[in-house]
Specification:
Elements lengths: L19 H27 L7 H29 L10 H34 L1 H8 L2 H24 L12 H4 L2 H30 L5 H34 L4 H29 L1 H21 L4
Protein name: G_PROTEIN_RECEP_F1_2 domain-containing protein
Keywords: Membrane, Transmembrane, Transmembrane helix
Length: 307
């Protein structure tokens, strides 16, 4: 069985995960996502940044799920390239169920923590007193982590309970196995998230532009805000809006499933970009990263044997 440069099965159903370029992209983003998020998590833990701001608690959740998502992408893409055949009309139900249940859990934790980071950034800019005195304190850390994981597990249990277990031919992704109740709730959640988040982020960007800071500092804050919003809109809002439109137009489930594959790929890109943006525009992260890299280089130079 050779590599495939196709996006369809032999029965002409769209299935992006059979595409060689898609899977190579998953491998690349998976490796980079694993490396970057592992380093990011190490920085936060080693330098105890999680004690300095609740934003880094959110980031631990985001980076932790980013690590798992990177591993997931590497494994799935290798399986797609080496084991799966385009002539197979439907894959093993149990394997696909495990895969999709895992995807729901990781995606919810990552999406929630990424949303927390962006919303807390807006609150920090506009309501610094409220943020520092009521939100940004150590006692909230464990509650946020527990709440996020609890809700993610509840969503996963709901997905398992309402899973569409028909043996009909289907793609091996979340949407293909989603039951009707979960599908309605999930679409409602996406629509609600977009409706609530967009005004918040626009409002946050507006207040960033009005900040009275040193020009250099203000420039970095504005660029950080711009990059976060561009990433959010490009890799979250647009793909999911397409899914919502397809859902209301009653498009073929395989067609909607194709856009879920696109969302999976876009999530892999966010997992990679997340650390890059933080390193470039977050002084705490950049300083801590450079310190750790210098320490490692110093240790390497000391332990390196001389000729």
């Amino acid at each position: 069985m050779g590599f495939r440069i196709i996006v369809t099965k032999d029965n002409n159903e769209l299935y992006l995960e059979l595409n060689i370029f898609y899977n190579i992209g998953l491998i690349i983003t998976g490796i980079l996502g694993f490396i970057f998020n592992s380093f990011f998590s190490y920085i936060i833990w080693k330098e105890k940044l999680w004690k300095q701001s609740i934003q880094f608690v959110f980031q631990i959740l985001s980076s932790g799920s980013g690590i798992v998502w990177g591993i997931r992408n590497i494994i799935i893409s290798i399986l797609n390239l080496t084991l799966f055949d385009s002539s197979i009309l439907s894959y093993d139900f149990t394997i696909c169920r495990i895969k999709t249940v895992t995807d729901v859990l990781i995606m919810f934790i990552f999406a929630s923590s990424f949303g927390y980071i962006m919303m807390s950034f807006t609150l920090l800019i506009k309501f610094p007193f409220f943020f520092k005195h009521y939100l940004d304190n150590a006692k909230n850390n464990k509650y946020i982590v527990i709440f996020t994981i609890f809700i993610a597990i509840i969503c996963d249990v709901m997905y398992i309970w309402d899973v569409n277990d028909t043996k009909a031919n289907k793609n091996c992704n979340i949407y293909s196995f989603a039951g009707h109740i979960f599908e309605i709730c999930y679409m409602g959640f996406i629509i609600s998230t977009i409706i609530v988040s967009m005004p918040i982020f626009i409002y946050g960007f507006y207040n960033v532009m009005k900040l009275n800071l040193d020009e250099t500092v203000k420039s970095n804050v504005i660029r950080l805000s711009n990059y976060m919003n561009v990433v959010y809109v490009t890799f979250w809002i647009i793909p999911y809006i397409v899914i919502i439109i397809s859902f209301f137009l009653k498009s073929d489930r395989f067609f909607i499933g194709l856009f879920y594959d696109v969302c999976v790929f876009s999530l892999g890109i966010i997992v990679v970009i997340d650390f890059i943006i933080a390193f470039l525009f977050n002084k705490q992260v950049k300083d801590a990263a450079l310190i750790l890299l210098k320490q490692k280089n110093k240790i390497t130079s000391i332990t390196k044997p001389r000729n």
